[in-house]
Amino acid sequence: MAENKEKERVSKEDASRQVLSMANRLALLHYAFTKTLLAELGEKKGKEVIGKAIRLYGEKVGNRVREITLAKGLELLRENYQEDLPLFGWSIERIEAEGEPRARVLECHLAKTWKDLGAPQLGRLYCYMDQAKYQAYNPELECVHVKNVLDGDPYCELAIRTKKKQRAKRIAHRVKG
Question: I need a surface site. Which of 38, 40, 124, 160 has the fewest CB within 10 A?
Answer without folding.
Answer: 40
